[in-house]
Fold this sequence. Notes:
The chain is of the alpha/beta class. The chain is about 45% helix and about 10% strand.
Amino acid sequence: xxxxxxxxxxxxxSFADDFENSYGxxxxxxxxxxxxxxxxxxKSGELSGLELELKTLxxxxxxxxxxxxxxxxxxxxxxxxxxxQTLDEKWVDYMTTACYMTNGCLDQLWRCGQSxxxxxxxxxxxxxxxxxxSMCRDNVEGPYYSYSQRSMYDIRKASNQRPYPxxxxxxxxxxxxxxxxxxxxxxxxxxxxxxxxxxFQHSGDYAYPRFLQDLEFLLDRGTRxxxxxxxxxxIGNWFGGEAISLALNYTQSTFFxxxxxxxxxxxxxxxxxxxxxxxxxFAVVHESGHLISVDKPGVALDLYNRAVWGRDxxxxxxxxxxxxxxxxxxxxxxxxxxx
Length: 339
């Protein structure tokens, strides 16, 4: 996006609603926290510029925190919403062992986190975190890709099925689309790039532990956070997403954890379930894979509209103040589980 288009956009819009997907579980929290810190610098006079009102951050099937999410790959491969056993037990055992063994996935992620806390930009941190990401992705996440013959984005589909329409890449590279977005003629959109993947892999970013902390920071400062997961996705599965939502520690986390799930209604049809309290919502969308906007566009639009207009995700009929009723804390144990 060129500077003129960027200027025109921010000149007219002084608020920011950001909706990310997948690895956006890294981008979104990091960008939003950076924007908040820039707002504070503008308020103090340290910088001159336009403050952005950080209203809503939505993350679909987000990859947010490796140490929390990796333990759920083996479980989801055989105990998923659809009762599909995608792998033989020997591979599930292999994934579980690789996750928990000495010098395994979680051990290496812990060392990555320790080094990251001491120096985020050191060569040692990058090396440890890159090594941890490789170990976890190859041995805990990876057997599914090698042996299940199912899509990483939707366990109901074969591995050769794309999660998005074939015309998408052509549309994004069309001259009219480029002009509307302010994209230069020397840029060509690709649906994936191995070079970009390797650059991220070598950086160690996949294993960095900061993004959960960024979400906690934003929640305590009033930003509305939505974590939404399609129930058929493997790579960003909802078991790990639920664990992320319950691991968040912020001023209202106890009340959020104790809040029971409610049905997610879209056009009077039950389309999933939602746990929400205050400015945090966690939703699971039925019959949807990695891209909810492709599999369930009507539900995705309802969630978007409810979020940006400050309504509850479950029905769209309540304000945020109305979904802040204090739940009964003793109910907590019965609200957790993959049902």
